[in-house]
Amino acid sequence: MSAKKNLDLGSFAQDVLIGLSSKPKSIPSKYFYDATGDKLFQQIMAMPEYYLTRKEFEILENQHKSILKKILSKNEPFNLVELGAGDGLKTKILLRYLDVIGADFTYFPIDFSGTVLEELKGSLAEELPNLPVKPIEDTYRGSLLKREWENGKPSLILFLGGNIGNFPLKEARDVLDHLRLGTVFGDEVLLGFDLKKNPQTILDAYHDKEGITREFNLNLLKRMNRELGANFDVEEFMHWPSYNPVNGECRSHLVSLKKQKVDITALNQAFEFEAFEPIFIEISKKYNLGEIKKLARRSGFELKEAFLDGESFFADVLWERV
């Protein structure tokens, strides 16, 4: 699943226009997350089939001391920077430990939703009142180019949740190129990667029995109806995930069940759909440890350690900038 964002109408309308005018049609997955999408994604994370969140929690709960050992061994103040902070639920495992041991650090949560950042800052003020928090409202690439946390201190950058998997390989490399530009020699990065595994396990995570993922994806059409004045008949589209075990790409589409036309008032335009024509909406790429090591080397980092859950479903890997 993708990182969160509530974007302005102009960006949304423009991306919908470009996406539905393309062949094949597509809509960026960042638009999943409006108020309804946020609630549905919380439900998805609690599903038994959706192992990703649960497995990363396991890693952070059981191995947070080892994960933080290197940055703490420097015995100096540091920056803890998080790309796509969201609600910070998993990161709080690290924050609580650092607070207990009295570590000298500043937390820089980055998200492109100002609302999400305000909620996170409020919850941290209640739970960890002495924690210095400096939210940054920006995109991954924008924040890495600006480096607002740059203060001469070493940094540990968090990119959790398997978010790098929400990009095709070429685009993932571009994000990691920005990550290289956003770090200096010796900085560390902790990245979450969903690992290749039984293909059925992966498919089940994106096609749960309760149909919550279906509702989550179809909400994208409902959002266009609400915000752009579209007239999508949601019942005439189906949610369809597929997984390719060769390249590790799990792709999700919304498929038109009949030949139909959709009007979008905000664009003053109609879009034709052939029967069973798909709209590509999301990718979630899976990796193996060999691929992760090569990706690190290619991006200007060295893989220092891989922290896995008990079933080796997920990995949080520690890279160092070289």
TrEMBL record:
Record carries keyword Nucleus: no
Protein name: L-histidine N(Alpha)-methyltransferase
Pfam family, one: Methyltransf_33
Species, as recorded: Algoriphagus sediminis
Entry keyword annotation includes Phosphoprotein: no
Keyword terms of this UniProt record: Methyltransferase, Transferase
Cross-referenced InterPro entries: EgtD_Methyltrsf_superfamily (IPR051128), MeTrfase_dom (IPR019257), MeTrfase_EgtD-like (IPR017804), SAM-dependent_MTases_sf (IPR029063)
Domain Histidine-specific methyltransferase SAM-dependent: 12-320
